[in-house]
Design brief:
The complex is a heterodimer of chains A (184) and B (185). Chain A has 184 residues and is an alpha+beta fold. Chain A has four helices and seven strands. In chain A, a hairpin with a 5-residue loop joins strand 3 and strand 4. Chain A is extended. The N and C termini of chain A lie far apart (46 Å). The chains are: A alpha+beta (184), B mainly alpha (185). Chains A and B meet through helix 1, helix 2, helix 3 and strand 1 of A and helix 2, helix 3, strand 1, helix 5 and helix 6 of B. Strand 1 of chain A pairs parallel with strand 1 of chain B.
Chain lengths: 184, 185
């Protein structure tokens, strides 16, 4: 198929100009972060932001809209928990690692390992736009870590591309990640 | 600029925030969320990163609002902050270590992509855009998607008009080549 250059570029631009919808929960996250800042214009700034967060609002919801609102609420709760976890500044010398799992049929995935005391509630992975990918970002200081993925709360998975851990204690598959001081 | 106000003017909202009505900032965030989010999403190619950068840009803008000399041009000023945050985030993402895990069993059972031309086109555009050098991608998006004049782009990016024109030209040429290659496969 041949298209003159300008037509092809115009088609790309038209495609990219389509509206993009960002999660409206971002507004609340911005306002919460602003509220936590030192007052820049006196205490009344904080008061106004807090009033905005708490301001009563009246909504009219269709049954479908009710479902969407419930989903949005769940998202805010999850994000809020993740935000509270990530608000702790990573220790000095830490490097950020993104873990990615391909699991299109999973409904929930957690990253567990030495870095979060193997607590499945501390590092829930997020489903990426493709819906097959799950991701989690974790800051790690130099050291040696055992880790695994917990799929749907019961299925343990090791990382087939990483060295397997000898884990006779627990009998579940896990992998080893070594983070070097200057690079890994 | 290709950013327009509706209802209460940006300037009026900015002045209310500067006077201490922090709640008015929520109206500005809601007004610019999707528009700026589109640029961040196309620039970074990842919704999670885009939302993080967008949130950061809004918070930084709030903290620096006293330095917004012309509240009438709040949109352009905010845009400049976002462009800079996207540059920083793009550089950070390039350095970030990535670990990929493969689940062969899951892949075997994953549904194959159907002959959905719209999805294919979307994938192809995102693929091509992600392969442009960041400076070219930035210039292309500002010119052809956000519909800015070169003079406005120069103010936002700090680059000269001639350099920006060259980046846009290169981006168009590279996109055309990549799309031709993709269509041959």
């Amino acid at each position: 198929m041949f298209e003159p250059m300008d037509d092809a570029i115009e088609r790309i631009a038209r495609h990219l100009r389509r509206p993009v919808h960002i999660d409206p929960a971002l507004d609340g996250r911005v306002m919460r972060e602003i509220t936590a800042l030192p007052a820049r214009a006196g205490a009344r700034s904080l008061g106004a932001a807090w009033r905005w967060v708490r301001r009563p609002r009246q909504f009219t919801l269709t049954p479908l809209g009710g479902l969407a609102a419930a989903a949005a609420l769940a998202t805010v709760v999850v994000l809020s928990r993740m935000d509270s976890g990530s608000s702790v500044p990573p220790p000095a010398e830490s490097r950020v690692f993104q873990f990615v799992l391909v699991a299109p049929r999973a409904t929930q995935v957690s990253l567990v390992g030495d870095f979060n005391d193997w607590d499945a509630t501390r590092t829930p992975m997020r489903r990426a736009r493709s819906e097959a990918l799950w991701t989690a970002v974790v800051p790690l200081t130099p050291g040696r870590y055992h880790y695994a993925f917990l799929v749907d709360g019961s299925r343990w998975m090791a990382d087939p591309t990483a060295p397997v851990a000898r884990d006779e204690d627990y009998g579940t598959p896990s992998s080893v990640l070594t983070v070097g001081g200057g690079g890994s | 600029m290709g950013i327009h106000s509706v209802g209460t003017s940006d300037a009026a909202l900015v002045r209310r925030v500067q006077a201490g009505d922090t709640g008015a900032y929520a109206d500005l965030v809601g007004r610019y969320r999707d528009r700026l989010g589109r640029y961040a999403l196309h620039m970074l190619g990842n919704r999670e990163d885009a939302e993080e950068v967008l949130q950061d840009a809004f918070v930084r803008a709030y903290r620096s609002l006293a330095r917004c000399d012309d509240p009438e041009r709040f949109g352009a000023w905010l845009y400049g902050i976002l462009v800079n945050r996207c540059r920083t985030a793009g550089a950070r993402a390039a350095r970030r270590a990535r670990r990929f895990v493969h689940d062969p069993a899951a892949l075997e059972t994953a549904p194959l992509a159907g002959p959905d031309e719209r999805t294919e086109w979307d994938d192809m555009v995102r693929w091509a855009l992600a392969r442009l050098p960041p400076e070219s991608r930035e210039a292309f998006l500002l010119k052809h998607v956000e519909d800015l004049e070169y003079e406005d782009m120069a103010r936002l990016t700090g680059a000269g008009v001639s350099a920006l024109k060259m980046r846009v030209k290169r981006a168009r040429e590279q996109l055309q080549v990549m799309l031709k290659e993709a269509e041959r496969v």
